Amino acid sequence: MKVLKVLFISIGALLAALIVIPLTILAGLFVWLKLTEEGDEEDLELEDTI
User: How would you class 36 by CB atoms within 10 Å of its CB: exposed for 0-12, middle for 13-18, buried for 19 or more?
Assistant: First the structure.
């Protein structure tokens, strides 16, 4: 019984990692995109004033 409990816990942890890790990567990419997008808009505004 103890072996089955450890097996189920490890499978659950693996499934959780397979869901959480890609979502974390996507969230990081989204934040990076938003930060670089704001930087691009500021650069465009500076070019327009020159």
Answer: exposed
Burial letters 9-35, b for 16+ CB under 10 A, else e: eeeeeeeeeeeeeeeeeeeeeeeeeee
Chain segment 13-44, per-residue pLDDT in tens: 999 999 999 999 999 999 999 888 866 666 66
Tokens 């930087």 belong to which residue? 39
Residue 20 in 3-state DSSP? helix
